[in-house]
Design brief:
Largest sheet: 8 strands, mixed
Order of helices and strands: HHEHEHHEHEHEHEEHEEE
Structural class: alpha/beta
Radius of gyration: 20 Å
Distance between the termini: 60 Å
Shape: globular
Bound molecules: S-adenosylmethionine
CATH superfamily of the largest domain: Vaccinia Virus protein VP39
CATH architecture of the largest domain: 3-Layer(aba) Sandwich
Number of helices: 9
Number of domains: 2
Length: 278
Amino acid sequence: MDRKQNVMNDTLRNSLYQLVMLGRSISIDRLRYHYCKMKGVPYFGTYMAARQGWADRYVAMDKLIREELQKYRGLAYQVLEVGSWAGGSAIIWGKALVEDKRAGNRLVCVDPWKFYATPSDLSLGTRLMKSGFKNDGIYRLFRHNTRCSQIQDNLIELRGASAEILPMLAPNQFQLVYVDGNHSYRFVKEDLKASGVLVADGGILCGDDLELQMEEIDVAFARAAGDKDFIRDPKLEKWFHPGVALGVGEYFGRRVSQKCGFWAMRKMGNQWVDVVQS
Ligand SMILES: C[S@@+](CC[C@H](N)C(=O)[O-])C[C@H]1O[C@@H](n2cnc3c(N)ncnc32)[C@H](O)[C@@H]1O
């Protein structure tokens, strides 16, 4: 056997080992899921890919909303979230709104909680997420997690696709809109267009998964990826969400302010300006 074949065998063995270990950890985590449900505590583990966000992004989101709430002089602060999954990001917004104590503070979550990946995107991540739709599992987990986190009194769920729901909402009513729905280019583009008009003057439009900005990527390569959720730029050797990079880049027509993939821009009249955090 030559050296090349040995390397291939090692790679294959390594991948198989990682798959087996992942399978095991998901089975063990399934027990933790049942335990959390029984105990009435939130669950964000690997089962149903419940944990979606990165810890450092959640920190940046929490910091942003708390700073905004401190500056805000209105009677009630309204947040719209597009794409909630098991409630990880919703709980960040929700807890800040509850702790702020203004009576009318509201978090509106829009999500169909229905399988949405296209056949061209059957990555391990989307396969794991697919398991969450069995018996409405992920929607039930969203309700469990938000209830256990005591944000349900400030929460309105609108179950359905953003394309149907966002146009029904009144313009300029949200102080913060967070876009983290379907990451395919055409959806990101439509979500941003429909969300931008919902942001009040001085408010924030933000979103997740901007690992690379449009000016940094090979645009033709990203477009050729079609509906693929997550790809690796061969020149930069970095993984990124092509739909988010293209959609955000086209909507704003320039670089946006961002921190570890969490991006945010402020609406000032008919312009979008960078969000400067302390
Ligand atoms: C990346 S996950 C959201 C993760 C969540 N924000 C968090 O941090 O835990 C993407 C979500 O978008 C939702 N989604 C997919 N298509 C959608 C659509 N057309 N409108 C609204 N939400 C959609 C999915 O059901 C899924 O819950």
